[in-house]
Structures are given as C-alpha cells and as structure tokens.
Amino acid sequence: MRALLVEDDTVLGGAMAKALGAAGFRVRHVTSGAAALAAVRESEPDVVLLDMGLPDRDGIGVCRGIRAVSRVPILAVTGRGAVEARVSGLRNGADDYIVKPFLVEELLARIDAVLRRTRGLGVAPAVVAGDVEIDLARRAVTVGGAEVGLARKEFDLLAALARREGAVVARDELLDEVWGTSDPSARRTLEAHVALVRSKLGRPEVIVTARGVGYRLGK
C-alpha cells in the first residue's frame, strides 16, 4: 500500500512516516500543497494523509484539487482547535480526519477504516444499516427502498455516523463535525436531531446511544 504523507512539520512527518513504514506502507513524504497535487497526478497513492495547515496554500484548496483528479481516500490531519478546518475538509472531499496530537494506533485505525470504506469504489460508498441505505455521494437516504427526506443537518449527522462504520462517535466530535462547535450547551441540539432522524426514518435502532459517550450507527 502506498501512502502520500503531506506534512510540513518535518519532525512530526518523520515520526508518521516511520510508523507507516513499520505498518507496511510505502511512504512518500512531501511538505507542501503543490508537491501533494503533483504527487497525486504523477502516481496515485492508496491513501493521502493531508495536513490542513500547509505553508504554501490552504489545505481545503489542496483537498479540492485532489478530488478534481482522483477518488483516492483522504485523511485530513488537523489541529485540536481547527474545528472549521475539520468540517470544511469533510465537506470538500476528505473521507475522515484525525486531530493532533494522536496515538499511532489511532492513526493506523483511521487509515484502515477509510480504506475499508473506499477501496475499489469510484464514488463515495453507500452505507447500509438494516433496511436503511445512506448514499453518501447522492446525500440520499432510503428505508426499504423508499427515499426519506432529511434536512441538511439531519443528513450530516447520519452521514457522520455512517462514515465510522458502527464505531462510537463522541458527542463533542459530532458537534465539531456537523455544527462546527464544541460548546457543551449545543448538546441539546444534537439530541434533538438524533430524535428527528430516528422519527423520520421510523427506525429508532439506526442510531444507537452509547451512554455517557455519544452515538453509533446501528446494524
């Protein structure tokens, strides 16, 4: 597997490259957005780890540039306070994100999950939970083959859970990704949207509550 690592911090980049190499990846490490775009065009990798805070250009622009020429899985790497970058990255082509600082084990797990979801697919995959199908590319949801209309934030919430393939997503992480806030007072908004999605789908089991932690997609 070939990994393109886009990270201008040479110390962090070196550590990440070493960890990826130990996990069996062939790593190409570049330090700028321009070099990242050139590398994707030259030889498409199996996964891109894209730092969203690059020195020569905005990471969102790099993400869009990659998406214009390739469906390669993109894992956005962001700073803890960069909520807007995380949300914008997901809306502009990133398949998932990881927040600095992180453990090597989490990095490898995120890469593995992204590759499982996207391997062999030319477009964003549809995720199935029982008779509920979530088409991430079309932003459409069907229940038993019949399409159900969801508001934008309702779909974004469901999609955030679908991308994690049944893994529990913390409430704060969902608030960051869907609403662009980490304010604990917004948790009531999250709970209200969970209730709305369950009601509209007629499948309360499609969003499972992990008590005290967050939510996950049901099976």
Tags for this model:
single chain; 219 residues; five-stranded parallel sheet; four-stranded antiparallel sheet; 8 helices; CheY-like_superfamily
Give a topology summary.
Layout: E1 2-6, H1 10-22, E2 26-30, H2 33-42, E3 47-51, H3 59-69, E4 74-79, H4 83-91, E5 96-100, H5 104-118, E6 126-129, E7 132-135, E8 140-143, E9 146-148, H6 152-163, E10 169-170, H7 171-179, H8 187-201, E11 207-210, E12 214-217
Parallel strand pairs: 1-2, 1-3, 3-4, 4-5
Antiparallel strand pairs: 6-7, 7-8, 8-9, 10-12, 11-12
Helix pairs in contact: 2-3, 4-7, 6-7, 6-8
Pfam families: Response_reg, Trans_reg_C
Modified residues (4-aspartylphosphate): 51
Domain OmpR/PhoB-type: 124-219
Helix content: 40-55%
Strand order of the largest sheet: 2-1-3-4-5
**Which structural class best describes the helix and strand composition?**
alpha/beta
> Unreliable runs, pLDDT <50, ≥5 residues?
none
Strand content: 15-25%
Broad shape? globular
Described by strand count, sense and barrel closure, the largest sheet is: 5 strands, parallel
Summed up, the helix count is: 8
Which H/E pattern describes the elements? EHEHEHEHEHEEEEHEHHEE
Q: How far apart, in Å, are the first and last alpha carbons?
A: 30 Å
Rg from Cα: 17 Å
How many E strands? Answer: 12
Arithmetic mean of pLDDT: 87
